[in-house]
Specification:
Radius of gyration: 26 Å
Shape: globular
Distance between the termini: 31 Å
Strand content: 15-25%
Number of helices: 15
Order of helices and strands: HEEHHHHHHEHHEHEEEHHHEHEEHE
């Protein structure tokens, strides 16, 4: 599946053959449709909830015993839909926009990754009883949330060179990586003694069920965890030592694969951590890649400059260079990339897709010293001159970039989850279906079964 989707609710769209719509349009609404929840000034319809639940059931086909009872699953899925609505509203309210062209490109990528055409995708959606309009709306919402998260990262998260140096120094001594999973029993900001006691009782009960063999860790995560990755069995993937809080990292070093910690109190609540696997990533092989050296002239598209106008200007600038004007002079006079304008448009050495597939494809098709026709990217129209190529070992550079990314990802994860909890707490949410109709509270299961779970 294409990496477009951050939300597990949208993962497996094609494989599951089902999806929910980010918006429901008047022509698709049946008179009997009900409201599942009111979220501020928006609503989640029962049909949206049903489609989302059906998508999860399709993903767990043959493994339904890992899922909680239907009413609990509905509460979990409804809570995710609520968070999606809140994030979309936040994105739109802060000026984040997604164009129809960007949605078309995303859909084209999904179709391509599934080795079908867009028309075949349309046909498959129709066979599954899903609306292409709703599919587009879902893609739009996911792109909006991605953009919101990216903007959040740019303004709230920074990683210093000193942090990267320290992490690399630590890795030089140990390159151990840990594959982890967790179960989170969340606590609100400023939790009361009663809330803490209730959460402690719940996490202790979950641990007891696992220890007795009445439920495996993955199933317990799906059923009881408050984490956004609960429906993935709490899987956290591979983490470097520097991505794990120091107190937890020390525990990991003493554990063997398959072991589970006692309940741990963290900033988000109580956690159970499982060490799934361990591997040594200290040995890095040479990574030889082709790098390109190029310079460019950029003409941006804006509210005042249309696509056609920008393209026409880029073609005029290209004609001037073909007529004998010096590239660097045209850059100085006309390029709108302020970061490279003073350097004659020089982009330095870069890998093929570093500036996007359209730019990279054009550069690779040029011979050294050739000048491209105008290239259209999300930034505008570029005229590119390729200056040279080289084979380079980027192992150290790649490792440094990877460490920087992992530190940033850890920081972002912590800040983003805190941000979402704040926005969820501030939102007006009125549940209209199930036992979750209790006002502004998440609909997750808080009590433990007295008997073995269904399907055991």
């Amino acid at each position: 599946m294409n990496k477009l989707f951050a939300s597990p609710l949208l993962a497996g769209l094609i494989a599951g053959g089902l999806l929910f719509g980010g918006a429901v349009h008047a022509q698709d609404v049946q008179p009997i449709d009900r409201i599942a929840a009111v979220v501020d000034e928006d609503v989640i319809l029962k049909t949206e909830l049903d489609r989302a639940v059906a998508n999860i059931l399709a993903q767990y086909a043959g493994r339904s015993e890992q899922l909680p009872p239907r009413d609990v699953l509905e509460k979990q899925v409804l809570e995710r839909l609520i968070l999606l609505k809140i994030q979309v509203a936040q994105a739109q309210g802060t000026g984040v926009r997604v164009t129809d062209q960007e949605i078309d490109q995303a859909i084209g990528g999904i179709a391509q990754s599934n080795k079908i055409s867009v028309e075949q995708l349309r046909q498959q959606l129709a066979r599954d009883g899903s609306s292409y309009t709703d599919f587009r709306a879902s893609i739009r919402d996911e792109l909006l949330v991605q953009r919101l998260r990216q903007r959040f990262a740019q303004t709230r998260v920074s990683v210093s060179d000193a942090e990267v140096d320290a992490a690399l120094s630590a890795q030089a001594n140990t390159g151990t990586q840990y594959h982890l999973a967790h179960i989170l029993v969340a606590l609100p900001e400023g939790a009361t003694a009663e809330q803490i006691a209730t959460a402690q009782k719940k996490v202790d009960g979950v641990k007891a069920l696992i220890d007795k063999g009445e439920m495996d860790f993955n199933a317990a995560a799906v059923r009881y965890s408050d984490s956004p990755n609960a429906l993935e069995g709490g899987d956290l993937g591979w983490r470097n030592g520097d991505e794990i809080p120091a107190a937890f990292s020390d525990l990991m070093k003493q554990m063997k694969p398959g072991q589970i910690t006692a309940p741990l109190r963290g900033p988000s609540g109580f956690q159970l951590l499982k060490l799934v696997e361990v591997r040594d990533a200290s040995q890095s092989s040479p990574q030889m890649v082709t790098q390109y050296h190029a310079r460019h002239i950029l003409v941006r598209v804006s509210d005042k400059v249309s696509e056609a106008q920008a393209k026409a200007k880029a073609e005029t600038l290209r004609a001037r260079i073909a007529g004998g004007a010096k590239f660097e002079d045209v850059v100085k006079e006309s390029s709108e990339d302020l970061g490279t304008q003073s350097k004659g448009g020089d982009l330095g050495w870069f890998m093929k897709d570093e500036f996007g597939p359209e730019f990279g494809g054009a550069v690779t098709s040029l011979a050294d010293n050739d000048i491209s026709q105008p290239i259209h990217t999300s930034a505008g129209y570029h005229i590119v001159q390729r200056l040279g190529t080289r084979e380079s070992d980027v192992a150290d550079q790649s490792k440094r970039a990877q460490v920087q990314e992992t530190i940033g990802r850890r920081k972002l994860e912590e800040e983003w989850n805190r941000f979402l909890r704040e926005k969820r707490g501030e939102a007006y949410v009125d549940f209209r279906v199930g036992k979750g109709s209790e006002g502004n509270q998440p609909g997750t299961e808080t009590t433990l079964p007295t008997a073995k779970p269904a399907g055991s």
